[in-house]
């Protein structure tokens, strides 16, 4: 499964990068395949391990601000691995045919 999520502190102003870094640090330390872009962090693994990482990432931000917004999107597809890479490679293959 791949989960793309965004965790944002509420009530701390516009500069949230330091808080978001706390969440991303949890994801990267998990050892699961992951990617971070300007809007979301994606993490790949089994349901329980991915959801545990999301929960801990939220807790890391919540510990510093008290109120957190979480946006989450999941691609639940049993038996598929390396989806973070293979999905992008498929799109790039089609784009290269242009």
Automatic annotation (TrEMBL):
GO terms for cellular component: cytosol. It holds the Pfam family Thiamine_BP. InterPro entries: MTH1187/YkoF-like (IPR029756), Thiamine_BP (IPR002767), UPF0045_domain (IPR051614). Residues 3-92 form the Thiamine-binding protein domain. It comes from the Bacteria. Belongs to the UPF0045 family. PANTHER family: UPF0045 PROTEIN ECM15. This is Thiamine-binding protein domain-containing protein. The lineage of its organism: Bacteria, Bacillati, Actinomycetota, Actinomycetes, Kitasatosporales.
